[in-house]
Amino acid sequence: MSLQNYQLELLAPARSLEIGLEAVRHGADAVYIGGPSFGARSSADNSVSDIAELATFAHRFNSRIFVTLNTILRDDELEGARKLAWQLYNAGVDALIIQDMGLLEIDLPPIQLHASTQTDIRTPEKARFLQDVGLSQIVLARELNLREIAAIRAATDAERCSLEFFVHGALCVAYSGECYISAAHTGRSANRGECNQACRLPYQVVDSKGRFVAHDKHVLSMKDNNQSQNLAALVDAGVRSFKIEGRYKDMGYVKNITAHYRKLLDVLIEERQSSDQPLARSSSGTTSFSFTPDPDQNFNREFTDYFVNGRSDTIGAFDSPKNPGQPIGYVTQVGPNWVELQLDDKSVSLHNGDGLCYYDLQKELVGLAVNRSEVQSAAKGKWRIFPKDAVAGLKDLRKGTQVNRNRDVEWTRTLEKKSSDRRIGVWLALDETERGMALTLTDEDGHSAKAHGTLQRQLSKDSDASLESLREQLGRLGNTIFQALDVAVNFSQPWFVPASALNALRREAVESLESARAKAFTRLPRALPVEPPAPFPEDSLSYLGNVFNEAAHRFYAKHGVQVIAPAYEAMKELGEVSLMITKHCVRFSLSLCPKQAKGVTGVQGQVKAEPLQLINGKEKLTLRFDCKPCEMHVVGRAKTAIARQTKEQLAQAEQSMVFYKQRPSDSAFGH
Known about the structure:
Blueprint: H1 3-6, E1 7-14, H2 17-25, E2 30-34, H3 48-59, E3 64-69, H4 78-90, E4 95-98, E5 112-115, H5 124-132, E6 137-139, H6 146-155, E7 162-169, H7 181-186, E8 203-206, E9 212-217, E10 224-226, H8 231-237, E11 239-244, H9 251-271, E12 280-281, E13 286-289, E14 303-304, E15 326-334, E16 339-343, E17 355-359, E18 365-377, E19 382-387, E20 402-407, H10 409-416, E21 420-433, E22 436-443, E23 448-453, H11 463-474, E24 482-490, H12 499-520, E25 540-541, H13 550-558, E26 563-564, E27 577-582, H14 586-589, H15 594-597, E28 612-616, E29 619-626, E30 631-636, H16 640-652
Parallel strand pairs: 1-2, 1-11, 1-12, 2-3, 3-4, 4-5, 5-6, 6-7, 7-11, 10-14, 21-24, 25-26
Antiparallel strand pairs: 7-10, 8-9, 8-28, 13-21, 15-16, 15-20, 16-19, 17-18, 17-20, 18-19, 21-22, 22-23, 27-30, 28-29, 29-30
């Protein structure tokens, strides 16, 4: 069994060098981070020099650094992407996460390539194809269930390709890579890292006769992903890389969520040690924390495990895209400039600077920032808070209102300090030699280093105390990345060794061990594509294929695709098309699905497969429902001004795409 079959990878995000360093310190086996350009988070860029520093640090623990180069590219951008890929390779980066298949047609360095979630991997056939063209790790669609993940694992080769799956963080309602609302309405493409998050807006939902189905609901806004309870099942289905979403997230989020999943995966690894398929970490060392990880403490829209265990009607955050926090108590009295609260847990304390919130009568979330808090009776859990804003302006705040806390300032301060310690275990042995003494360090990965020193062979006055003192002194590994697992002193006599000599010996041995580890570090291999070229699962690609440059066109043509339409971003699709395809179904979530209604007296026959419409101000989108695959299409068209502006920008960039004139046949929806 190869290493890839039993090693688990915890993959954490980093917005910056500093956050990346903390991700490693808090137990990440790998970190993904944006480079200076071409990453699908346009405001999460980092310099090559910062990434090089992060890679050097991570490699000390055998952790890996992956860089996102996962936008679709214009022809004039390919050379810049090629140069950047080489710079990142020379900086020590372990893998590039890509979406644009045109990159496989240019002169890339021998760096491992991973398929971004933007490549929309939902089927065994697509996964197998990406494996066969040289992608060593593929990020599966978030919408898959355990059975579908297992089917992809069965269709691919675990020796050649690892499966990666998002286990935590914000959920994009669309199949990744299949959302064009932002491009159509603003000219900012989600496939180019500039999504305007139209999915988080409130909408009126009306039927074909103009009747309201829902009013000011965030019907495209999902709760946040949390697979904490499903890790063992995901491992059994074939997942080996567990990805945390969040390249926009702050330091506290990355520390807390990385620590949370580190602890869960370590427990799972320990539980499987005696099984016939034992598991292991894919990097070195163990991590301890000065806090108890708690996902509820970070911004979240409440949690869902999405479709992993099948479809449910609780995946949406329809009332608000904000963080509702956790229930903490209720209002007992409202004063002129204060509010009295009865806390549910009398051991809980409120702090100056806490963030509280509540729902008004329209179920809109209202913030209640604490300027000052005073305990009225700790024994009874009664508190008086003085809000930052005028009490009179707090809508619908009244006696009996449930109050949540969505920011605990003390928790935030805890994570602003040092909150973890990651160490690699070593065995130390001090031996006599003909010329003096030698200290040998052997780490948990099997690397070894030795340092030599002089020994006067002067007996110590207290032999037992001397041996214990030597062991204690040698085990003080201080600010190094190592911790002593055992210290052996193999002297024929209880020789006295000055502390200064021992410290120098230990310091030299540690430096030699770090050097040995660095020399032994191996880069991830670049997978070779199979020959002859693997055929793409389909013989035509619509705009949904996201082909935006001639290199990508050549790639798909080489792999047997006969008809290749340009990406939506080329603004060739000026009529109504699917601007988003999603597994989420508004009809299902609003209990209007015909399958739900089947057999219910008085309902069957009233629910029709007619379209619904989403309205936000002047923006209108049509919802069409494809019940066979159980998918929803959000249909619309590009604004005329946006299409014209985008075409002008492409012309200025000297974009020249020549595709087949023949178009794929229309979809079942006639667009």
